[in-house]
Amino acid sequence: MRRALVVAVIGTALLAFAATAGARVLRVGSYHGIAGQYRTIQAAVRAARPGDWILIAPGDYKTSPSAITTPRGKPDFPAAVLITKARLHIRGMNRNTVIVDGTRPGSAPCSRRGSAQNFGLGAGHSSGSNYAVPAAARSGENGLMVYKAPDVSIENLTACNFLGGARDAGNAVWWNGGDNSGRVGGHGYYGAYLSTTSTYLKGQSVAGEFSGAQYGIFSSNWSGGTWDDVYASNFNDSGLYIGACQDVCDQTVNHAHAEYNALGYSGSNSGGRLLVENSEFDNNEDGFDTNSQNGD
Question: b/e for 187-213, b at 16 or more Cβ within 10 A?
Fold first, then answer.
């Protein structure tokens, strides 16, 4: 009874705040028997206005290849959930049971089976569901990607099995300010109570490491933001990454845990005010890396 009361109080407070601020609350899925307005997260994002809240009910949210989307004029960034509107607040109602899932529709949540994996768009950078196309010819897929939209928050959910491919993909939660542009194009974010992982590992497919998940929680070409109470495991590159922010990073990582990755934390060409505290990096091939690279 006390738990239900707390949920009710939090929900009421959130609705009151949204109404006061002029923002709306858009609901995805069904929570405690009450159906939301939207079945998919992307549909709610499309309908949202800057400043709105999107609440996601427990469920396994998958994306078929035909539903993968990319930023306008940027086909190299395929995403299951693409966010390009400022100040959206995306919050799951349960960190463990709200799952943004890279595996194929109809498969078990975060399935490790090779046949369950979604390798993204087919050859030729065209949409479709041609799983017969070799994995190395497919785009790969990102999970939740914020593209140059300022002050977007993502909280209280799990993202799994977003795999790499021929394009810039394989990242579970990504604030992308213009990867490979040489410029900082994103400003401000908040990510909290996020779990990211992959159960599809090297050796389970002829595609091998190429198609593995690359980054768990990722910020590139961005200035300003905080990650708090986040987790990342089983990534081919790094669990947490902050890079290409050109000495104006102004970012904080707090209460993070990264394990069983190639790198626990990686920061390439990142400096200025950048704080990592109260965090744990263990059972990685390399725990904590900061470096400079001409390519980033």
Answer: bbbbbbbbbbbbbbeeeebebeebbbb
Name the DSSP class of 221.
S
| Low-confidence stretches of the chain (pLDDT beneath 70) | 1-21, 122-137, 202-211, 293-296
- Is residue 91 within 8 Å of 155, Cβ to Cβ? yes
**Which amino acid is present at 62?**
K
Determine the Cα–Cα distance for residues 119 and 151; give it in Å rounded to an integer.
30
Per-residue pLDDT at 126:
38
Cβ–Cβ under 8 Å, residues 258 and 231: yes
Cβ atoms of 229 and 252 within 8 Å: the answer is no
* Cα separations in angstroms, 119 against 2, 64, 66, 232: 44, 10, 12, 21
Domain range summary for the chain, segments of one domain joined by +: 25-291
- pTM above 0.85? yes
88: tokens are 């959206």
